[in-house]
Amino acid sequence: MYVLKFGGSSVANANNIRMVGDILINYPQRPIVVVVSALGGITDQLLLTGDLAAMGEESYKDILKSMEQRHLDTARQLLPVTNQSGSLSKVKQYCNELEDLCEGIFRLQEISDRTKDKLVAYGELLSSQILQAYLSSCQINSCWLDSRLYVKTDNRYGKATMLQQETYERIQNVVETSPADIYVVPGFIASNMQGHTTTLGRGGSDYTAAIYAAALKANVLEIWTDVSGIMTADPRFVPNARPIKQISYQEAMELSHFGAKIIYPPTIQPVMNLKIPVWVKNTFAAKDSGTLIENSDTVSAEKIRGISSINKITLLSLEGSGMIGIPGFSKRFFSALAQLKINVILITQSSSEHSICVAVQASEARHAQEACDEAFALEIAQGRVEPLIVEDNHAIVALVGDKMKSHPGISGQMFSALGRNGINIRAIAQGSSERNISAVIADKDVKKALNVLHESFFESVKKQLNLFIIGVGNVGGKLIGQIATQQAWLEENMNLQIRIMGLANSRKMLVTEDAIDLQSWREQLQNATDMQLGDFQQAIINKNLRNSVFVDVTANEDVAGSYSTVLKKSISVVACNKIAASSPYIQYRSLKYLAREFQASFLFETNVGAGLPVISSLNDLIKSGDKVHRIDAVLSGTLNFVFNNYDGSKPFADVVRDAQAEGYTEPDPRLDLGGTDVMRKILILAREAGYELQMEDIDNKGFLPASCFEGSVEDFYTEMGKHEAHFKALLQKASAENCKLKFVASFTDGKAAVGLQHIPPPHDFYHLYGKDNIVLYYTSRYPEQPLVIKGAGAGADVTASGVFADIIRVASQ
């Protein structure tokens, strides 16, 4: 015997029912029991009809007419004209009964649970009759069984419980006395001890199928739905979710209880006791293997099987010093909830006995609050217990896997992954079986949490990084081009998927639902929203994407001052902008602290030396226990370019213009030539070396006349032209000493200075060409021969590559 169940989407219309018919006709085994749900959406419409009728709204009649027409049309499309009359008559009969029932509800203007059960039963009665008529028209030896006659339950309505022995005997008898190849059974419905129609609860068609499978000791139970098995996570939230090939009964129950809607929770129990395997398969992709549910002994040893969630959860907390050491509080708390039939989804209690916390469905929270406050009214009045604390807008995410107990560190991996992405955990529960770890989080974080956990436990093949780039000029444009070129390589070789989700410049900002097309990003940005920094950052926060990175490729002070906003949301910052790291020391330390506190990265390698590993090498020295005593450096690619190219044959101002045209200078070249940029760089290096230093502590021996700092950038060039003799004199003096001019930054045991120096031929700085930078680190381990880092220290391409390297570094942290 084989039992197959088809859900509402599988029998939603005539075309789908034909697919079901093909599966049954071509099924290699006989006999088959087929359990069907109502046509997709019909149960909801029946409940709505009853509610409208109870409210005295005559619009319920329109819904009844629409449902009747839908079933009649479905039957006509499926059956040959010569076979239609009996089926259409049955549909009309049921619809007339529905109409009479709803008229009674309308006249009384009330609907009881018993009446509601009778009402919604018609959905399965109609769908099963139509399917059986279709099979008969295909010359299949089939018969229809009324589950109300054979499935017996207790006297509850809405979610009845089966009376096992009586039900099994009835089912066995009817199958033995009614031989057929295929038995068609309406799911969901049964009768109670008084013979009234009752239901097994939403999803009860699965349960009906399991009852028949257990009663008939079936070879297999197949649950046919619209997805190819139980998924590792909800595919609506996690695009990379994949079907689970094999899972144990216990794991399937855990996943179904915690929001996996593929299978109804009570379904597993009847078949598990008899070790009947369960296949979850896809009606619309019948060749897919689906998910096999069976004994844990035969299931592979993967430690995590799936991730599930329950939304619309409310936390209820009973707290008070009067609870400590006093027996009975827990019993009274749960008794108050039980009297209202409120289901407790999760329980946690502090070891101090000061508080008990439970999670319930949000719809039941207010009733629970009233009941508990009444139960503990005396203790509340005496101040021994606080009124029940109710916290709405929560959800539960759960990791499920039989093998977790033999793999230490699962909880740590789970909580670390959530913490790195700024997802706060409000409560935690884990059973002694260690098959489930559940965490209560804010409901707004559910999608992010599911993706974070899925990436951590199931996607060793790929990690996703979501970038929001502000500043898309020369360097920013090069960065986007480098990312576009390298995306495929990173996915293939580093399992890293980089998506640009937001772009902004001084005029426009763009934040998208899907990754921005890197071939047309300029056009998209041009047509985007007007830029407001606060709005751009709020849009990033609202997106709430895992592994988000705010990339600042500007020199803007306001942008640098806003890093704390995103760091507090566990969004990493990669900064080409030097202003933040060279701001007052307390601000610099605050950003470092926020990055640690909220498990985000704050990286700014390109602040010094563009793409050179100047800061990362320094960090490695400090982390390994070395101490920096002295730093000598040429840190301005702009100034090195200028003094390498200025030989007196061309005005100094023109050489500076050439440097700006090549993209080597800051937007205002005076930041470079005045020494401000170099001061920031040596300040940053000193701070990263562990010294508390302020900008005003640095001695700046400038070489520009004071008048060059007045007016606009164009005024600056004009003024430099007036002082050409001054610049020639600097050059001639150095040449007379057989030296070159270099703008040098130095730091020695807490003191820093920058200024123009004469560099003789033996010096490391003498043979420094083009836009090269050089840094010499003298440390406890490198006291005489310094650690030398040398290379191109300016230019859009190398700067962009340094930013890109920081972005990749974020992925590894």
Can you describe what's shown?
It is a single chain. Helix content is 41%, strand content 20%. By secondary structure, the chain is of the alpha/beta class. The two termini are 55 Å apart. The mean pLDDT is 90. An eight-stranded mixed beta sheet has the order 3-4-2-1-7-9-10-8, sandwiched between helices. Strands 20-19-18-17-21-22-23 form a seven-stranded mixed beta sheet, with helices on both faces. A six-stranded antiparallel beta sheet has the order 12-13-11-14-16-15. A hairpin with a 5-residue loop joins strand 15 (427-430) and strand 16. It is built from 29 helices and 29 strands. The longest helix has 25 residues, at 84-108. The radius of gyration is 36 Å and the shape is elongated. It folds into four domains: 2-225, Carbamate kinase, CATH 3.40.1160.10; 306-444, VC0802-like (2-Layer Sandwich), CATH 3.30.2130; 463-607, 3-Layer(aba) Sandwich (Rossmann fold), CATH 3.40.50.720; 614-794, Dihydrodipicolinate Reductase, domain 2 (2-Layer Sandwich), CATH 3.30.360.10.
Percentage of β-strand residues:
15-25%
DSSP summary: helix tally:
29
CATH superfamily label of the largest domain: Acetylglutamate kinase-like
Mean pLDDT: 90
Q: What characteristic shape results from the CA principal axes?
A: elongated
Side by side, the strands of the main sheet go 3-4-2-1-7-9-10-8
Largest sheet, in brief, is: 8 strands, mixed
Q: Give unreliable regions as ranges.
A: none
CATH architecture of the largest domain: 3-Layer(aba) Sandwich
Our count of domains comes out at 4
Helix content: 40-55%
The whole-angstrom Rg is 36 Å
Structural class: alpha/beta
CATH level-3 fold name of the largest domain? Carbamate kinase
Distance between the termini: 55 Å
Quaternary organization: single chain
**CATH class group of the largest domain:** Alpha Beta
Strand count: 29
